Amino acid sequence: MAPQDRLRIAAHAKVNLLLRILAREAPAGYHQIETAFTLLDLADELVVTRTASGGGIALTVHGPELGPPEQNLAVRAARAVLEATGHKFGVALELTKRIPVRSGLGGGSSDAAAALHAVNALAGNAVPRHELLHFATRLGADVAFFASGAPAALAWGRGERLFRVPAPPAAPALVALVLPPVSVATPDAYGWWDEMHPEPAPRGPLLLDADAFSGWGSIGRLGGNDFEIPVFGKHPPLRVLYERLAGTHPYWVRLCGSGSAVAAVYANEGLRDDAAMLLGEKHQRLIKTTTRAAAAPGPEPLP
After folding, report:
1. Among this protein's residues, is 14 annotated catalytic?
2. 252-288 as b/e: b if 16+ CB within 10 A
3. Cα–Cα distance between 221 and 217 in angstroms, integer?
4. Digit-coded pLDDT (tens) for 220-251
5. Is 142 among the catalytic positions?
6. For 89, how many CA atoms within 13 A lie in the half-sphere containing its CB?
7. pLDDT tens digit string along 84-118?
8. Residue from 44, 111, 142, 226 carrying the catalytic annotation
């Protein structure tokens, strides 16, 4: 099999450095947000193989059960590219999950962006970049960030309007998930925020410049995550986990997206590892990782 018929690509996790809900659209009910993304080294792995099945898509998952394949974002992303290129071939997707599901770390969205780029590479990059980003936006707001290739970006609207910013310096990070596992669906989290703000007053965006992202100290002063109060109210163990993590002297600590993971960034690996030892894994699952200062690499050929 020729190398261009089989590709591997990493699908990195993200954290939201800040997340503000600015307004709720009427009557659709969508929310206008302001957020900033940055990548983590923590990543799923996607291997995509060309098949001769005339546009068919097969999915194999190594990890947790993800539900019906036809609803999987990576499958939908692959289908979008195959349709755009005339169903000249099919693909087999082999997905190794390392990013916890429904954790707010963007695993499903990152898998979709990885599938867009990998299947397009198998098609000789027949879909132009701007069209590929349009596919990403239709699949989900976070998919646009992952598909952009930026290691960090500001986002507005529903999260799909992006402005690339220099990534903060790479730093040791600790991702924590409460045990027994808590699953938070983003629509539920928005619903809880709506309950707390039945008639929200419109909020303006923060005044930001690139220097605000030049170091973790300044990032920590940008603001919090508007999901924290409603999500912690519904899931008190997450609040306890957040407070314990905040007590380990990180530069920065936040709920990841709408949850259920909490992440912290430290000055050095020693402080991160000390925090992990202090917390232990009896009441939480811990993942040691690092933030990324460089863009994620694209697809690479496999024999």
Report:
1. yes
2. bbbbbbbbbbbbbbbeeeebbeebbeebeeeebebbe
3. 7
4. 888 899 999 999 999 999 999 999 999 999 99
5. yes
6. 15
7. 999 999 999 999 999 999 999 999 999 999 999 99
8. 142
